[in-house]
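tmp note - Deacetylase sirtuin-type domain-containing protein
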Amino acid sequence: MPSSDVEEFRAILASSKNIMIVSGAGLSAASGIATFRGQGGRWRKYDAQVLATLSAWQENQSRVWQFFHYRREEVRPAKPNEGHNILARLCLPSLRKAIAPNATVVTHVTQNIDGLSSEALRTITAELQHSQHSQDASFTTTPSSQPWPDGQIIEMHGNLFDVVCTAHDCDYRAKNMDNPICPALGGTEVIVAEGNVEPVVKRADLPHCPECTQLLRPDVVWFGERPKRIQEILDIANKVDLCLVVGTSSLVQPASKLPERVRAHGGKIAVFNMEAANHSDEADFLFLGSCETELGRVLG
Ligand code: BJW
Ligand code: ZN
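out:
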């Protein structure tokens, strides 16, 4: 049975050299973002899981773009919560010294596409730079471009504000913060569309590539697609001696398999979740409760 002994956990944390955090939608719940499988895991009459597929996209690009436009507008005003902030502090050497003095690398692999973990890290780093803590001052967070060990946050399922061209012979990919992303989607986020009545946005009015004019899609990872930087993530998991699994149902591969990989070479697993989730009985530690409060209580 997993332990919930805080002192025992802190001793493991203090001796760990390589630490990995694997987070999911529960981490952003306190920021007002709906989880995938909990209450709010539906949009209009659709299951979010069904819309996060290539076949949903192929069947109805207007609907899938409206879903992602809705989620961009949900996330836009959201702010990182205490859970994001605590994990960001764990990623920064000068701020983790007291609790993880032996850690040389802490990598946060998030399944979330809301960008809030990166925002927390950026904000705390800027505060550090401002107060001239030179040890961390060279740290920058350009999330998806930095190789390990410097890129401490990996958004393995992409980011809501990234777009990619769907043309096979075009490699256009960009950050897009436009509000709305195109005029035709503006306002569709407030339409509930009961029954079969839903707005149809013509293909020509959806976001298009500025380089080749083909359709753009959100640069997120749908079922059946290869997660971002997956080889790098697997290499990290092969080396870490402590893995914190935070706010994820651990139902989606390959994220759900990362703890198993850590355990295979003797690494420890600590789960932080509102309730016992998939695989949590195999963990070394289980801290039940909301992660924004439990992370603070347990990590100190
Ligand atoms: C709190 C809390 C609080 C709440 N505090 N806790 C059979 C057929 C077809 C495919 C497969 C198959 N079997 C396996 C597969 C593979 C498939 C898969 O796993 N499917 C399963 C569902 C069966 N996986 C894939 O296809 C992946 N790709 C892949 O495997 O490629 C092959 C490959 C592997 C390795 C190397 C190379 C190649 C891709 C998966 C992509 C997932 N995409 C989505 C959508 C992203 C875009 C979008 O958001 O729209 O990602 S699906 C969705 O699930 C989203 C999430 O990131 C992901 C995980 O969800 P998460 O974060 O765990 O959220 P919830 O809602 O499930 O859980 C929230 C948890 O928080 C709960 O436990 C709560 O209790 C808790 N909680 N409040 C603490 N305050
Ligand atoms: Zn293009």
